[in-house]
Prior knowledge:
There is one protein chain. The chain is an alpha+beta fold and 178 residues long. The chain has helices spanning 9-16, 59-67, 103-120, 146-154, 170-174; strands spanning 30-34, 40-45, 49-52, 55-58, 73-83, 87-96, 129-132.
Amino acid sequence: MLRTIWGDPERYKKTYWPDEFKGKLYLAGDGASTDEDGYFRIVGRIDDVLNVSGHRLGTMEIESALVANSKLVAEAAVVGRPDDLTGEAVCAFVVLKGARPSGEEAKRIAKELRDWVGREIGPIAKPKDIRFGDNLPKTRSGKIMRRLLRAIAKGEEIKQDVSTLENPQILEQLKQVS
């Protein structure tokens, strides 16, 4: 466990031992809840939350709903992007178990996945954008580079360092919206 933040011990206390926990609980940054049987449900990073029309949605929840469609989806990543109507829109990057679709097939599968998420979580969680790729932008160690996905979702030019990407060509593929 961390003992301090170098040169800023007060920031360490504020960040990891917040006042609302009265110094008794360490805040790791992961969110979870318990049900009536005492089972824990991990909902993901507390700082990785989307605010869609005033509803706070965890990206991990939406990703889990997409991957729960085991017939179609092999892997998914979700990020937010600014939206004039809802404040923030859900943007999903999906790797299918089959070949990457295009044209009308991509639109059909995107609609099917939106409807799936709507049934699993609720209509507010339906992704506004769904982008298909052969894989997701990952480092060589397998970690998804979400900052790149956020830039793609916002339509920004990627100016960040991509030297650690396993497959830099995937970025162009993920820019296409279905």
